[in-house]
Design a protein that fits this description.
This protein is mainly alpha-helical. Helix content is about 70%, strand content about 0%. It has one domain. It contains 1 helix and no strands.
Length: about 40
């Protein structure tokens, strides 16, 4: 499969955005009173 440079840049942007959101979720859970409660 061949992808254009624009498609790859957009995919990277979306991945970076997702990683940033996940990082914020982790911070939120760590700030909760009982973070152990949310561990699987």
């Amino acid at each position: 499969m061949d992808y254009s440079m624009d498609e790859l840049k957009e995919a990277k942007r979306q991945i970076d955005s997702t990683l940033h959101k996940l990082g914020e979720v982790v911070k939120t859970f760590e700030q909760k009173e009982n973070p152990k409660r949310y561990q699987s």
